[in-house]
Amino acid sequence: MFGYIGLPVWRKGIFRLNTDLSAGLSYDFEPYDAENNPYNDVIGSWLNVYFNFNLGTYWRLSKRMDISFGLDFTHFSNGRFRTPNKGMNLMGVNLGVAYNFSPMNIYRKHSDEENIYPIRAPFIREPLPELDKYSEINFFGAIGTSTTSGDPDVNEAGPRYFNSSWGIDFARRFWWRGKYVIGTDIFYDGSLVEGYGKPHSEVSVIEKMSFGIHAGHDMMFERITLITQLGWYVYKKSSQRGSYYIRAGGKIAINEKWSAHVALKTMNGGIADWIEWGMVYSIRLKKEKG
Q: What Cα–Cα distance (Å) separates residue 236 from each residue in 130, 200, 207, 211?
């Protein structure tokens, strides 16, 4: 079960190029079990996040029919909510047929016979509205949990730890759908206690924290914003999480100042660290026309 958005990239005559982005939940996996499924060291939960990106071309055959061909990437994981969680990455090709319905013409036969509607939605070119450029400061806070691998000879995962993320961003709107973002992060990762080789009670708070900086992009669609960020650690006591991280997810505006946030924070590239559930408070600075 997922939501998706399709964005046209290029069109020429009877051909067009689209990008399709999907995200949601996938279920009915057979998770790791020490007795009944011991060879599955990839997925530790029956419910996982589903992500798909497709780059597809469409060739118009007739008024109603298209042929599509695309390349796609699919990812399944649970954000280290339960281990093992190496995740599954799939690359593939797809071939399909698209049929264009015209429900308005069916409606016309019964109630609006004077108007004829096009079978396909028309492609309309209009001048872009004047862009309202602005800058804003975003204050961000989120919490999450994660588990460790535990004993591979038993079914139970390792302990569950509390995690949190805090940060301040500067965002600048530079086009109708996008902002560039730079900011700072403070992370608290309770699971780091397992990497110091000493009793957990002797691991200090600062040893469970890390500090980083990031740069990224926000893509806006009405109230929904898609977040992509690449960050680097500038200070941390532990070496368990590598040198850089990625944040990918989204936020939905509740009002002009508050947004709800959910994203996956990774470690050392694309390895899931934890899922962030949080809130963002925005202070908009002076607007500029241009």
A: 45, 17, 7, 6
How far apart, in Å, are the Cα atoms of 33 and each of 39, 40, 41, 47, 186? 8, 8, 9, 15, 35
Look at residue 281 and tell me whether its pLDDT is greater than 70: yes
- Sorted by sequence, the CB contacts under 8 Å of residue 279 that are 6+ apart come out as 140, 141, 142, 258, 259, 260, 261
Residue 199 preceded by cis peptide, ω within 30: no
Per-domain residue ranges of the chain: 2-105, 132-289
Placement of tokens 């093992």 in the chain: 84
Q: What is the DSSP letter of 43?
A: B
**132-289 is classed in which CATH architecture?**
Beta Barrel (2.40)
What pLDDT digit, counting tens, does each position of 177-186 carry? Answer: 899 999 999 9
